[in-house]
Design goal:
The chain is an alpha/beta fold. It has a single domain, classed as Glycerol-3-phosphate (1)-acyltransferase (3-Layer(aba) Sandwich), CATH 3.40.1130. Helices cover 36% and strands 20% of the residues. It contains nine helices and nine strands. Helix 6 crosses helix 7. It is globular, with a radius of gyration of 18 Å.
């Protein structure tokens, strides 16, 4: 937490926010095992979904490893919003024994939106994703996956994958930022104003805009960052000596 907030006005709150983060993680871990509670989830900002899909455009539903990420796909499906979910290939690997096997089975169920979704392994050929977006489909993808593309975030430069911005530029698909919000034992899903690649000069500019949306969300509530189950690249600065040429393109 100290590293995350180092260059922000909230740096002095790191210790207290770290405690809140541990508490929030414990609550979400309990809710993870109670999928029936997702029947109560609300979708907030549905007008942004409709704006993002106007004219039959494809859409990248972009999320971060923040809050109850597991709730997003089931909530969308329960409200009739069809989305493909780009998921880690481990969901399709043989289940390990014991608790970890049960945990992974539950993750697979969430990725499949309680058995009705359309989960796609993240190692599929890019052509599969391009074809879906060009056909007007929606794909849920995380913006905060470690990569080699320098991206401004909370007063530093971090290295993220360039997938969402690159896919949007190549297909003209809109980018719809989405965040899970916990209210007691209910997890709602909030949608934000979509980003149009046509409004940006290149993929790097769009990537910075995507990160900028989540930067404000993280700064407002740092305790929702998932540090434990997913080593977050949001706290790792790009070494000053690393140039754009070394880090690669988008």
């Amino acid at each position: 937490m100290k590293d995350l907030l180092l260059h922000t006005p909230r740096a002095g709150e790191a210790a207290e926010l770290a405690r809140r983060n541990v508490k929030e993680a414990a609550i979400l871990r309990e809710l993870f095992w109670r999928p029936w509670l997702l029947k109560r989830s609300r979708l907030i900002g549905q007008e942004h979904w409709h704006a993002a899909h106007a004219g039959g455009r494809g859409c990248l539903v972009v999320v971060g490893h923040l809050g109850g990420l597991f709730a997003i796909t089931p909530a969308l499906w329960r409200h009739g919003f069809v989305v493909y979910s780009l998921s880690t290939p481990q969901y399709w690997e043989p289940m390990p024994p014991g608790y970890m096997g049960v945990w992974r089975l539950r993750l697979r169920a969430y990725a499949e939106a309680l058995g009705r979704g359309r989960a796609i392994p993240s190692n599929v050929p890019p052509e599969v994703l391009l074809e879906l977006l060009e056909s007007g489909a929606s794909i849920l993808i995380a913006f905060d996956v470690p990569g080699s593309a320098p991206t401004p975030f909370l007063g530093r430069s971090i290295a993220l994958a360039g997938g969402p911005a690159t896919l949007a530029f190549r297909t003209g698909a809109t980018v719809l930022p989405v965040l899970p919000e916990r209210h007691g034992a209910r997890i709602d899903v909030r949608m934000f104003e979509p980003l149009d690649p046509a409004d940006h000069r290149d993929a790097a500019s769009l990537r910075a805009a995507i990160a900028g949306v989540f930067e404000q969300l993280v700064l407002a509530k740092p305790e929702i960052v998932d540090f434990a189950s997913y080593p977050s690249p949001l706290v790792t600065e790009v070494p000053p000596e690393a140039s754009a040429e070394v880090l690669g393109g988008v």
